[in-house]
Amino acid sequence: MLSYLLAILIIVGVYTLLTQCLNLHYGFMGLINFGVVGFFAIGAYTSALIAIAGYPILLGVLGAIVLASLSAWPLGVLATRLREDYLAIVTLGFAEVVRIVVTSESWLTNGVQGLPGIPQPFSSLGPNAQGLAFLGIVLACNLAVLALIMRLAHGPFGRLVEAIRDDEVAASALGKYPTGPRIQIFMIGAGIAGLAGALYGHYISYIVPDQFVPIVTFYVWMAMIMGGVGSLPGSFIGAAILIGLFEGTRFIDDAFPGSIGVEMASLRLVFIGLALVLFMRFRPQGIMGTRMQS
User: Residue 284: pLDDT above 80?
Assistant: First the structure.
């Protein structure tokens, strides 16, 4: 039972990092990013390949952050030139390109067979002790990212970003150009998603392209909406609600003993979609968001 709870908390921590990435892009800068899973995949594969090659896990994690950040640079440039709807399409396409590359370049990524045997930290410890230690790493990473975002948000750079987000024309008239801040925010957020991918890969110890499909981005958007757009505590709450829905609906099978697994998987998605609809109807600002005045 303890191992199961630790696994849930670790996955919640991973999704919290992804939600903080999206909150930084959309809640902080107003950039619609439908390619979160692309940076997630880049981080997972980069760290896994470096560790499998025999290098330290920490080096793999740092490589995942750097490569995910660098891959966001061209998207950040596009973000300064595209309207929101076009940017959403481009980022969605980017995520699909990443998935196709890791699927087709089997000489490097092992293609659809995936990468097994990814080194795990604290592997010499027992299962529960290893889970606790890994959970500590995930929590430390979340706290570090939280501190970074708070430092950005409450400093001069944060005020500049808010001014650009609220009225780009007025900010430009005052000599504050949006190109640099947008690129920086996009790269920082991508690095956070790359960190989440690295942690996910080393915890699961096996990654395959099917784990990085577009619906993962939808789940992250759902976590952000339920927690509250732009709310840093809401990132954790939204991720916890999301994973709670996933794990809670697993027990639907017990209520329908004669059911088929595929039918129950579809029913789980119905419950998750219904939860999102209810949030949008009765709490559109999310748990930690501020209610809009009519």
Answer: no
Q: What gap in Å lies between CA 29 and CA 174, rounded to an integer?
A: 18
Q: Is residue 250 part of a domain?
A: no
| Alpha-carbon distances of 157 from 128, 150, 181, rounded to whole Å | 42, 11, 8
61 lies in some domain: yes
**3-12, 26-35, 76-85: segment of lowest average pLDDT:** 76-85
Q: Is residue 278 exposed (0-12), middle (13-18) or buried (19+ Cβ within 10 Å)?
A: exposed
Q: Is residue 81 part of a domain?
A: yes
Task: Print the domain residue range for 188.
Answer: 2-213
pTM of the entire structure? 0.90
* Pair 207, 105: CB distance under 8 Å: no
Determine, yes or no, domain membership for 278: no
Evaluate whether 195 touches 61 at the Cβ level (below 8 Å): yes
Residues 207, 59 contacting (CB under 8 angstroms): no
Higher-pLDDT residue of 172 and 108 is 108
Higher pLDDT, residue 276 or 195: 195
Give the total number of structural domains in the chain: 1
